[in-house]
Amino acid sequence: MNKKNIKRRSNWYIYLISFAATFVLLGLVILALRDTLFPQNVGGPLTDWRNAGNYIPPADLDTTILFMLSEEQGSTPDLYMLLNYRPRDGVIVAVPLHGDTGLVTGGESWRANPTTVRISELYESGGGSLKVMEGIKNTLDVDCDFYVRFDRASFTSLVSALGDVQVNIPFAFSGGGINLPAGEQKLSGGDLFMYIYHVNFPAEDVGEDYRLSVLGSAAATLINFNCRNMEREAIQDAFNKLSNNADTNLTFKDYTHYQQALSYTSENSISPASFYVPTGGYEGGSLAISGQSKADILNRFKLIAIGAPQ
Fold this sequence. Notes:
Aminopeptidase, alpha+beta, 6-stranded mixed β-sheet
């Protein structure tokens, strides 16, 4: 009788050990496959703690985004800006462009039959954002992976998520329904849009292309100061405002691909952003970017060029 009890007790421990081992093994399998079995909710914050302390952004995350700015929804953008982001290098370079900057077009045969068209004309002729990106590739040898087109409402929404922007105004400004005194000012998204879009100081007082300098400086300041040490939830909130209000080909999948790099830049890069205004002259009604500026852009974007573009 006692031997039978001992045998039953021994079998019971074997079952318990087997159950525990199976449970642990199942848990390890689920942990390894958690991203596949339990994909992140689109509306919820993302967290990835794998190798977080040793994370260095890979070089293949380098990208260039085309930003466009129009006054009203559906209207043709008047201002354009290339934003080159290299998270591994801790560098962001903004290159603002006039709407009358000339881009080379002509489809697949553009080398044999190049046609120069102003950016704004290329956009409004039915080409839209993708044609502008193609023209930038033909003209500057820069591939744009993404585009974002802001109007006043979507621009204001994004800046409201990031906070007021410090701007140095050289002279008292009046335009677009706002009046701003000279000096250092913190502008809301709405006032910043109006200042960028309607700044009209005489060239003899502020120099040529001052409007582009205002756009580039505002972008660099927004990144260097307002985007410093942001929580992941705040970064995602800014992306949600961008994707929900602006016209863009950026998707939530793209955001998840760059999420850790964005957090890395925000936490580790001190003043990563700068801007460069290209030089040039008018030819045939459009503003031709100089060959030197084309080479400078490739150099600042850390792209390899065979000779300086003409």
